[in-house]
Write a structure and sequence with these properties.
This protein has about 325 residues and is an alpha/beta fold. It has two domains: about 230 residues, 4-Layer Sandwich (Nitrilase/N-carbamoyl-D-aminoacid amidohydrolase), CATH 3.60.110.10; about 70 residues. The chain is about 25% helix and about 30% strand. The chain contains seven helices and 16 strands. Strands 1-12-11-10-9-8-7 form a seven-stranded mixed beta sheet. A six-stranded mixed beta sheet has the order 6-5-4-3-2-13, with helices on one face. Strand 2, helix 1 and strand 3 form a beta-alpha-beta unit. The chain is globular and about 60 Å long. It starts with a strand and ends in a 6-residue tail after the last helix. The N terminus is likely disordered.
Length: about 325
C-alpha cells in the first residue's frame, strides 16, 4: 500500500489539522498504572484525540464495570484536564447485560457516545455473562469532524464499515486485540474516510481516504515505559476526495481562480479520483470546493446508489 506523508509536515498549519495519539498495549488490570501511562502519552503528544486498545483493562471474570465506573471516570478526568477527546474501550456492564464497548469522551469530560461491538468474537459469547451483540454503528459530531468506532472482529464484516460511511464518518477509530493489516486500509479506500487503529499488539496505523497508509509522526514507546508503545498521527480533516465525473470543469476553474487557497494534492488517474487540500490557514477547502460546485466522492456514490436503487423498483437495495 502506498504511504503518504503525515500532515504534520505542513508547517504552515493550513487545513484542519487533528493530532491523534494511541497507547498500544495489552490490557492493564492495574487502573493506576493504566492512568499513569495514558497521562504520560497525553502530556507528551498533546492530542486532540487519545485512544486506548480494545478492552483496555481486560475481559474476563470480574472485569466488567458500568460506564460510570472507575475506568471511564479516570479517563473523563484526563479528558477534562487536558481538553482532549478520549476513546476508552471497556468490558461494560449495563443493567446486568455485558457489552464489549468503546466510550467516546469529549474535551469537557462528558460521555459523548458509546459503541457496542456489533460482531463479538466467538469466545466472547461463552463468557459468563456472555457479551451481547451490538446493533448499530453510530457516528458522533466532534469539533474536528464526524467520528465512528469499530472494534476488532468487526473488521471482517463490511456492513459495519458501510454503516459508518452512511453516517458520514470523517474518521473511524478501530480498537483491537490484533493488528488487522491490509483489510483496514482497504475499508479506508472503499469508503473514503480516515481510519486510525489502536491495538494490543503494540502496533498502530493510520490510513487516508484513498486507502494510503499515513506515516506515524511519533512512534515507539512512551518515555519510561518499556511495554507501552505509543504512536501519534496528524490528519487534515478538511482535506477531501472527489471523482472526476462531473467535476473537472469546476475543478480547473477553482484551481485557476484560487491558486493561493487550494492545492490539487493528488490525482489518482486509474481510479479517476483527485484530492484537494487548503494551501493557507483560514481556508476551508471543503467549503470553497462546494461553492464552486464540486461534489465529494462519498456524496457521488451515495447519490448514485439511491438513484440506481430507485430504478430497481420495489425492494430497492439488492
Amino acid at each position: 500500500m502506498t504511504s503518504v506523508q503525515t500532515m504534520s509536515a505542513r508547517a504552515n498549519g493550513a487545513g484542519h489539522l487533528v493530532r491523534i495519539a494511541t497507547l498500544n498495549c495489552r490490557p492493564v488490570a492495574d487502573l493506576s498504572a493504566l492512568v499513569g501511562r495514558a497521562e504520560e502519552v497525553i502530556r507528551q503528544r498533546t492530542p486532540d484525540l487519545f485512544v486506548l486498545p480494545e478492552s483496555c483493562r481486560g475481559q474476563g471474570a470480574g472485569t466488567s464495570e458500568e460506564v460510570d465506573g472507575p475506568t471511564v471516570s479516570a479517563m473523563r478526568r484526563l479528558a477534562r484536564e487536558f481538553q482532549t477527546y478520549v476513546v476508552c474501550p471497556i468490558d461494560r456492564l449495563a443493567d446486568g447485560v455485558r457489552w464489549n464497548s468503546a466510550v467516546l469522551i469529549d474535551r469537557t469530560g462528558d460521555v459523548a457516545g458509546i459503541y457496542d461491538k456489533m460482531f463479538p468474537y466467538w469466545p466472547e459469547l461463552d463468557l459468563t455473562p456472555p457479551v451481547r451483540v451490538g446493533t448499530r454503528a453510530p457516528v458522533w459530531e466532534t469539533d474536528f469532524g464526524r467520528v465512528g468506532i469499530a472494534i476488532c472482529f468487526d473488521v471482517n464484516f463490511p456492513r459495519v464499515w458501510q454503516e459508518l460511511a452512511r453516517g458520514g464518518a470523517d474518521l473511524v477509530v478501530w480498537t483491537s486485540a490484533y493488528a488487522g493489516g491490509s483489510i483496514v486500509g482497504a475499508y479506508a479506500g472503499i469508503h473514503h474516510y480516515y481510519i486510525v487503529t489502536c491495538t494490543q499488539t503494540g502496533e498502530s496505523s493510520a490510513y487516508d481516504m484513498t486507502g494510503a497508509e499515513i506515516g506515524a509522526e511519533i512512534g515507539g514507546k512512551a518515555d519510561g515505559e518499556d511495554d507501552a508503545p505509543a504512536s501519534s498521527f496528524t490528519l487534515d480533516t478538511d482535506r477531501q476526495i472527489y471523482h472526476e465525473n462531473f467535476n473537472m470543469d469546476n475543478l480547473w476553474r477553482l484551481v485557476k481562480e484560487k491558486p493561493d487557497d487550494v492545492e490539487l494534492e493528488r490525482r489518482l488517474l486509474a481510479e479517476q479520483w483527485f484530492v484537494l487540500r487548503a494551501r493557507r490557514p483560514g481556508v476551508r477547502v471543503r467549503s470553497l470546493a462546494q461553492a464552486y460546485g464540486l461534489k465529494p466522492l462519498q456524496d457521488y456514490v451515495r447519490r448514485s446508489t439511491a438513484w440506481i436503487d430507485d430504478l430497481r423498483g420495489p425492494g430497492g437495495r439488492p
